[in-house]
């Protein structure tokens, strides 16, 4: 199982991966996010403070989570992205679809 921390704050839930978001960790993180949405969580904050690397499967995870939350009437927010990850999100224009902030 991927090492992630989950904490709930009212109507928002924070997901904090403590490993890089790459093909080997994405399935577990995706399962956790799907379970949260199935429980009725509307707003998910993903804290990338401990993440240094993200591959294309990681990007796909964020797009999928955003789309699922949008359909459920919620939203995705990304915080504490490193400069490299922030640049990646901006290059992919994902910052136009959900809130992304740097560390």
Keywords:
103 residues; alpha/beta; Transcription Regulator spoIIAA; five-stranded mixed β-sheet; 3 helices; 37% helix; globular
Describe the structure.
The chain has helices at residues 26-38, 56-71, 83-91, and strands at 4-9, 12-17, 43-47, 75-81, 99-102. The protein is α/β, with parallel strands linked by helices and 103 residues long. It has a single domain (4-102), classed as 2-Layer Sandwich (Transcription Regulator spoIIAA), CATH 3.30.750. The chain has a 5-stranded mixed beta sheet. β3 (43-47), α2 (56-71) and β4 form a beta-alpha-beta unit. α1 packs parallel to α2 (56-71). The longest helix has 16 residues, at 56-71. The chain starts with a strand and ends with a strand.
Secondary structure layout:
Blueprint: E1 4-9, E2 12-17, H1 26-38, E3 43-47, H2 56-71, E4 75-81, H3 83-91, E5 99-102
Parallel strand pairs: 2-3, 3-4, 4-5
Antiparallel strand pairs: 1-2
Helix pairs in contact: 1-2
């Amino acid at each position: 199982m991927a090492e992630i921390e989950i904490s709930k704050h009212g109507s928002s839930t924070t997901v904090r991966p403590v490993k890089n978001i790459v093909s080997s960790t994405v399935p577990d993180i995706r399962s956790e996010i799907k379970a949260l949405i199935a429980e009725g969580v509307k707003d998910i904050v993903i804290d990338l403070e401990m993440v240094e690397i993200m591959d294309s499967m990681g990007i796909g995870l964020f797009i999928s989570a955003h789309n699922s939350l949008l359909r459920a009437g919620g939203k995705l927010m990304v915080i504490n992205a490193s400069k490299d990850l922030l640049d990646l999100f901006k290059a992919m224009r994902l910052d136009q679809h959900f809130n992304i902030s740097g560390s």
